[in-house]
Amino acid sequence: MNNVISLPTRSLRISLLVSDPEVLNELERRDDGAAREAFATQALRLGVLALRQASGSLDADVIRREGDQLLSSVGAVLHERTSELSSALAKTMQQYLDPTSGALPQRIEQLTKPNGDLERILGEHLAGDQSVIAQTLAAHVGETSPLFKLLSPTQSDGLLAAMTMTFKRALDGQRDEVLNQFSLDRKESALSRLLAEVTTSNGKLRSELAEDVGKVAHEFSLDNEDGALSRLVARVERAQETIAEEFSLDHEGSALQRLSSLLTKTSEAVETSLTLDDEASPLARLKREVLDVLDQHKAANVNFQTEVRSTLETFKTRREEAVRSPAHGNTFEAAVGEFLRHEAQGYGDLYEAVGTTKGQLDRKTGDHVLTLGAESGAPETRIVCEAKAKKGYTEREAIDEIARARKNRDAQIGLVVISRAFAPEGMSALRRVGNDLLVVWDSDDVASDLALRMAVSVARALCVRENVANSAAEASFDRIDQSIESIAEQIRIVDDIIHSARLVKRRGEKIGAGAEKLRATIEREVAALQDHVKALRKESE
Question: What domains lie within the chain, and their CATH numbers?
């Protein structure tokens, strides 16, 4: 796809004298020249878009552009990856799993067939006395093997006989040693030495325990002034006296007296700061500042609503005059042509305005023609477009006229763009009828550009599908119809968003009432806070 950036076809030079401080600060931050002009142009565009939103129009340029790019990218990637993956997977599966020529079935058959590789290998290694495994086991663990002779219980010089004699001699020696250590007949035995040490230690323990009990009783006696219990009682009495002094209001400098003085000073300071009787108090200053902010907000809101209403009335008058003008049809046709020209440049297609020339049927039916480019998948395929801004124009007339236009302009796909102001009631924003597409578009509402852009994309897809087989084309048409229904649903959602945006003006009128309620609430809360502080002071006194 060739991305061509189209230059604006219209421009207007204006000279502005700026005196607003905030705007001046932002402009002076940019260098004089192209940078400052670009910033001023962008700021003016943002202001115009904000006024459009206030009037109920939603700028869906970002949504339209990102949605276009996403659908185009996803469609191209999915189409390319699906074809590659399907082809590679089919070849790989056929190479390995084909019943007649696949590598896996042939290998399995070669292994499992009678007298095959698997049966032959198992027979050589496992079957009969002459097999490899039988001969190996006989050589290592058979009756004639050294291992069998060494482990035989009948061999006197075998390993089992030698181990038996060694264990027997060791057990007998250990048994005799244990009996000797636990015998009281021998003084040097472990049991005799243990009894002697226990008897000696028992006498020492009794005498030491008696001495320790006497010392403990002496320490915990109140008759002993230097004892631990006497010292503890003295400390408790001194601590009790200190606590009583600290929590007494009669004692000068006590903690309770200092706390009472501090609470009194704090209460006086809080009452002074949170009173509305003193104009210099923080609460009074806060009240004045809040009321000033609310008044400024209310005045700014009233001015904004006045400007918005004036701008909306101007836009409404201009739109009504344009609709009533006899040249509205020609203006709408030119707007459709400009839109299609921009789309053709983005896709790398060729655009032609043919409304004033005769075609093959010697008629001027068909206003615009798009010829798909070399990278589209269907080069030289043509799409004819008919733009209609006509009162009482029906869908039946549109289908008949676009059919004649396709024959007249030698086109495969037809596109009818109907002005929203003259569209039949209840008509869908986007609809496909065979090889023709019907779309409703408003040249003054950028939100409706999404439907026309989707219609062009679907028309190009239909051109490409003309080159595939009938079964595949039928499946693609079903998918295209599903996509059209989904797009129509998304367009209805965008219309709901536009309706919600139109409520902004009504919401603004409620801001003033909300500010008044906020002021009354703040005054009530301040009075309640003042009453609460007075009550706290009385309780502290």
Answer: 104-123+131-141 (no CATH), 255-309+506-541 (no CATH), 325-501 (3.40.1350)
